[in-house]
Design brief:
mainly alpha; three-stranded mixed β-sheet; elongated
């Protein structure tokens, strides 16, 4: 069936558009379905391929152990890798910059100032065309790909 007919049949089954939530109308439902479909298709077709350059990773230094414990084993293993899995795709290695705080707190004071300082140094180095292994801070690490 054409998409519009599918949506109309779906609404017959689910109820009226107004019953599904305030502000939801047929065009919005159509956009939601098309968005979901596009993401599902992209996920199915995606194939990992090596990235030829170097990846710069800003990694939060604090990880919530309770949140980690609740993750599936495969996802927990990602956090054990210093590159968070990026090392498998970066041919030029992964430059790791530890940032104080948790994943969300690095965007809040006082940690955001540290993040901004590191990011500024990385941008300046990129603009100057500095070598791949020069790091703005002594604690940063370059992991070869």
């Amino acid at each position: 069936l054409p998409l519009e007919t599918q949506l109309a049949r779906g609404l017959e089954i689910l109820g009226e558009v107004a019953d599904l939530g305030p502000g939801l109308d047929l065009p919005m439902l159509r956009d939601l379905v098309l968005g979901w479909s596009a993401r599902a298709t992209a996920s199915e077709r995606y194939r990992v391929s090596p990235y030829p350059g170097r990846i710069t990773l800003f990694r939060a230094s604090l990880v919530d152990p309770v949140a980690l414990r609740d993750l599936p084993r495969e996802q927990r293993q990602i956090f054990e890798d210093p590159t968070l899995g990026w090392g498998t795709v970066a041919a030029g290695g992964v430059e790791i910059h530890p940032v104080p705080g948790s994943h969300t707190a690095i965007l809040e004071a006082p940690h955001v100032e540290t993040l901004a300082r590191i990011l500024r140094a990385c941008i300046e180095r990129a603009e100057e065309g500095a070598g791949a292994t020069s790091c703005p801070l002594d604690k940063d690490v370059l992991v070869s790909g």
